[in-house]
Amino acid sequence: MKPVLVFDLETIPDVAGLRRVHGLAPDLSDSEVAELAFQQRRAAHGHDFLPLHVQRVVVISCLLRAGKDLRIWSLAAPEQSEGEIIQRFFDGIEKFTPQLVSWNGGGFDLPVLHYRGLLHGVVAPRYWDLGDADYPDSRDFKWNNYIGRYHTRHLDLMDLLALYQARAAVPLDELAKLIGFPGKLGMDGGKVWDAWLAGETAAIRNYCETDVLNTYLVSIRFRLMRGELGLAEYAEEIAFVRHEIEKTGRAHWLEFLAAWR
After folding, report:
1. What is the DSSP string of 130-174?
2. Which fold, 4-172+181-259?
């Protein structure tokens, strides 16, 4: 099995960017700048979900399944800058050329990384390979690359399962719970900004990591559905995942296991 990299990211308002774009007074606090942006968004669109280019990446959580190993980790602020977080993510693609798996990665995560990577001068040649790059297997990327919506080198499970119809898309949390996986544990994307302001960076990372694992578990179920795994192989992979996260002894994984009926 070739390496599989499941990813998810969490963002907060790009306060510095909003100050520049809107020419805001320097004496406004970060929370005031963000609230002003939220109010403008609500007035214009009826919701406060900010445009993707002004969403600052504070964590990218990754699950790498390669060979006999399963590894889950986060690239996160404040230990790393946004540019470093994004560059290291694309460095992983450069190193492993994995299959990417996401939930709404094509609609949110990757476009955010495109805009924010452009802002920080991130370099990602393997990711942008469309069959004309200087790699031995580059020609294969003409027909199956990370960018093409209907290609499988990046598998956006939400988009695929909805047959690329936005009205048919469902929340990861609800689908995971319907199948019998834990789903979200006490936090969602709408709470990340408040958690950031409160200094709860570890909670944001833990939440993002559990979302990555929920996505991987759903992807295993999808592999069973499409016939890539048999029932015995599916059960073996599920047992393997449970064992790997249990042996970490980390609190959020023990909580995840306790919620996994």
Report:
1. -S-SSSTTGGGGGTS-SS-TT-SSEEEHHHHHTTT-GGG---HHH
2. Nucleotidyltransferase; domain 5 (3.30.420)
